[in-house]
Each structure stands twice: as structure tokens, then as C-alpha cells.
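Handout for the seminar on molecular recognition.
Each group receives one record of this type.
Step one: identify the two inputs.
Step two: read the structure output and locate the region that could contact 1,3-dihydroxyacetonephosphate.
Step three: write two sentences on what you found, then compare them with the reference statements printed after the record.
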Amino acid sequence: MHHIQHRTLIVGNWKMHLNVAQSSLLVHRLNQRIKAHRDVEVVLAPSLLALQPLSREIDRRKFRLASQNAYHKDEGAFTGEVSYTMLRGLIHYSIVSHSERRLYFNETLEVVRDKVTACVRNGIAPIVCVGETQEERRQGETKQVLHDQVTSALANLTADEVAGIVIAYEPVWAISTFGGEIAKPDDVAVALAYIREQVAGLYGDHVAASVRILYGGSVDENSVRGYLDVKGCDGALVGSASLNYHRFSSIVEKAHVLHS
Ligand code: 13P
């Protein structure tokens, strides 16, 4: 299938690690090591608390920010929540429906759809995470799961809106904290192609060619090139290796292939 070449998107998901001071220190270290590359876009997803200070500290030629989550209503009596509306202007992207949120916080397909809708309504590009569990894989349900997760997450969006989002394939069994089996690039290729096919079936070939699809799950400086070389892979969503400045800057360096 036809596929538009984008800048390679490397996203660091810091999960629930690093307070504000530690986050600033990591950004400082990354800034010393990472150069601005025309062909790589680097996105950092720190805790909600660190987004505001980091938005003032980052070099915007090198880094963009993402949230890891937010609430789908724009405002109201929802004690303890932060909305996408409040994050507007602070972040370019938001990770939505990470498997940890689906599994630990009971995010259903409907919740995910509402969050994706809220992101787009607020001018934020969602990074929609999809992926099967070990059990689903064993039962041969991978395609059904991906189909259901993709279809429902995008249900409220127009074709134009879908063209601007990001989908991350994160097989749960390959995430370091859930077992960290290493997915083979060939398996990743099959899943990415299937996801793009689903988007084509729903929104047409043009939209499917534009939508960016990432791979996530135990990506590190040694494995990243193998995944980025998969046909149709637009980047990587990195967990634990993104907390280490040597490893994350090395991942960015390996993603950079255009030597000008
Ligand atoms: P690891 O890179 O630690 O396996 O985590 C992957 C992930 O969940 C990124 O969102």
C-alpha cells in the first residue's frame, strides 16, 4: 500500500517516573546530546506535573511534548482530573489508551473513543495505542483485537482528522513490564500492515497513506533500527529506555538516516 514518508517519530513515554526536578535534569542531559534532525521528530511524555515547567525549558527545535493521559470532558465538576482543554498549547500529542491504562484503569473502547475525540477537538494529535495481550495472541485473536481497537477509537473522527493522528502498535506481551518478549520485525510488519489496511477500509487509501503508525514494546538502542526498517513503520514509542539519556539519545541518533 502507498505510504507517505514522514519524519521518523520517536516518543519517550516516561510513565510514572521522575518528579519535576528529575524531569528537568533529564531534559537538560538530552538537550546536550540530541541534535535537531530534519528527519526525526522527538516527543517527550513526562508526568502531567512536569509538562508546564518543561514547556518553558525545552528547545522547541528539538523536542515536542505529549501527555500520557487526560480526561475527555473539557471542564466541570470532575475532582482530580485534568482536561485536554487545559493541556492545549502545552502539548502537541497525547498518548491515549496505553495498555497500562486499559488494564489497570479499566479504559474501555468507549472511554478510549471519547479521549481520542477530545484530543482532536482540542487540537492535540492522539497517539492511539493498540495491541493484543499474550492470551489473545495465543488464542489467535490478534487481528480481531486490533480491528476492534482501531475501529472504535477512531469512530467519531472525520477522514481528515484520522489522517493527522498517530497509532502505536504495542503488543502487550512485548512491553518490558508485562513480560518483555521481543517482537520480531517480521511480526511487527504483519501487524502494522493490518492496522493500515483497517484504516484504508474505513477511511480510504489516501488517509491510510498519511496516518502515522509506530511500534512500541521493549524498543532500545540495539533493536530500534530493525523496527524502523519495517515497511510502513513511522517511528517508535519507547518506555524504559527513554529514561536513560545515553540510551534515548542513541535511539534518536539511530533513527536519523538523512546525513546532510
Ligand atoms: P518498554 O519500552 O519499557 O517495553 O515500554 C513500552 C511502552 O509501554 C511504551 O509506551
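Reference statements: The pocket of 1,3-dihydroxyacetonephosphate is lined by residues 13, 98, 170, 175-176, 180, 216-219, 237-241 (CB under 6 Å). The first strand starts at residue 8 and ends at 13.
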